[in-house]
Amino acid sequence: MMKQLSRIVGYLSLAGTIVPPILFSVKSMTQPTMEWIMLVSCVTWFAAAPFWMKAE
Amino acid sequence: MSDESDASKSEYEREPVPDSAMKGPAAFWGMYAGEHTAGTEFMIGPLFVKWGASASSLIFGLLLGNLLAVLTWRFLTAVIATEQRLTLYYKLEKIAGGILVKLYNLANGVLFCFLAGAMITVSATAVGPFFPDVPMPTFATMMPTGLGWIVICAAIGLAITLVANRGYSLVAKVGHYSAPWMFLVFVACAIVTLGRLDNFNIWELLTPAEGTTESISFWGIVFFSWFCNAAMHLGMSDLSVLRFAKSPNAGYASAAGMFLGHYVAWICAALLLVYWVRVHNVNPQEGKDPGTMVNDAVGWAGLICVVVAGWTTANPTIYRAGLAFQGVLPKISRSMATWIAGIVCTIAGIFPGVAMQLLDFVGIYGTILAPVGAIIIVDHFWAKKLGIQTDPAEKSRLAINWIVLIAWLVPVAAGMAAYWKLGLFPSYLPLPCAIACGIIYVILMKLWMPAREQVGAV
Lengths: 56, 458
Fold this sequence. Notes:
The complex is a heterodimer. By secondary structure, chain A is an all-alpha fold. Chain A contains two helices and no strands. In chain A, helix 1 runs antiparallel to helix 2 (31-52). Chain A is elongated, with a radius of gyration of 13 Å. Chain B has one domain (6-358): Hydantoin permease (Orthogonal Bundle), CATH 1.10.4160. Helix content of chain B is 70%, strand content 0%. In chain B, helix 2 (25-35) runs parallel beside helix 12 (254-280). Chain B is globular, with a radius of gyration of 22 Å. Chain A binds chain B through residues 13-14, 17-18, 20-22, 24-27, 31, 34-36, 38-39, 41-42, 45-46, 49-50, 53, 55-56, and chain B through 5, 23, 26-27, 30-31, 172-174, 176-178, 180-181, 184-185, 187-189, 191-192, 194-196, 200, 298-302, 304-305.
């Protein structure tokens, strides 16, 4: 359950890293909003990744 | 530009890897993807812009060079790794003797220090936006920019060395976790740049301004991307990693690092400088530090990416340099060896010239270390067919195999002379030096290794 939840958060975080720049580039988002979403996505990614990314 | 599993370095160092310890392909795809998306990628992309690389050279040259690198990993390194299942060091000891392994360790350790130094330089630029009074280095900067710069680099070097000294498993894990995110930050920087320039024609953006001197040709880029990791594939350093692979097809996993890190990430990083050249009129010969460019593009997430990318690759590099130094001087503790490596790295990082000359440095790195791999290739594939003893140092109980030393040093000396005297682009040198090394090794083994000794040693 925890692993599945963290996986979902992880994918959302990756989406939060790449989608805002796309929206910014087509002028559908401001730069400060994009930067904030990317920062939050960074934090959530590092919080979620250890629970489901197996360190080989 | 390098990172690898620590576990693979500490297990089965003097015996073949057993079946029970082998790993599936997923481990290698993840490792290569993380290893080759490093802080130095932020330097290499813009350096191509400085060198006036054309769009076709970048897009097709990098494609071909990276493909050749993947094929070298798959059909040379991975084949030997899965058939021998030994570390480079142990295999080299069998061929060259223990003393030569120490010499190799010394060369490897010093080169690792300069590489980690470049990563410290890149990480230090991420601190720049917080200290606007500290001048950040440009491509033209060879010396420290001032006391502030020295303090920043020393603090980062100290922190990385402290962590390396404690064992870097946490940082290795962070590096593993951060790989997919870091790659997307590179892509995000490029997308933001395209949007700001209101131009999604990458070909047009990568085309240098009229009148720009093309200092690196298509083949220069092919050879650079093929041999920037020459020590790892042709030089067989990755035997230590790929010996855990179930099949040589694990060599294809290097494609994750080559095409994500050394293709997409380099082009994304190049676009960052293109933006600064076009919008802020930055001179491409001077460039702009990665920290400032990434902060300007995507803010804090970008700065974190620069620090994480530099840190997660510099840390294991310092650790490995320490191990290499300890291999040379076994009486010193691992902690002392790591401190020596950390101090050398930090001094190298304080001088931005290393990072700013990265295209040259990685070529020299490959030129010095790749020829050793040629000797292993000869020993593995052709020694028996050519009537040469395999693993001669082990079978003849040699502490030093002088034939290996001559075969290694003569082409390297010639290659370095070609670089210093003729100004040859160093990435052209690893392949001819390795081929020459292999040929000299075969000739000298046939001439000097007495048949009696060979037979008697079997």
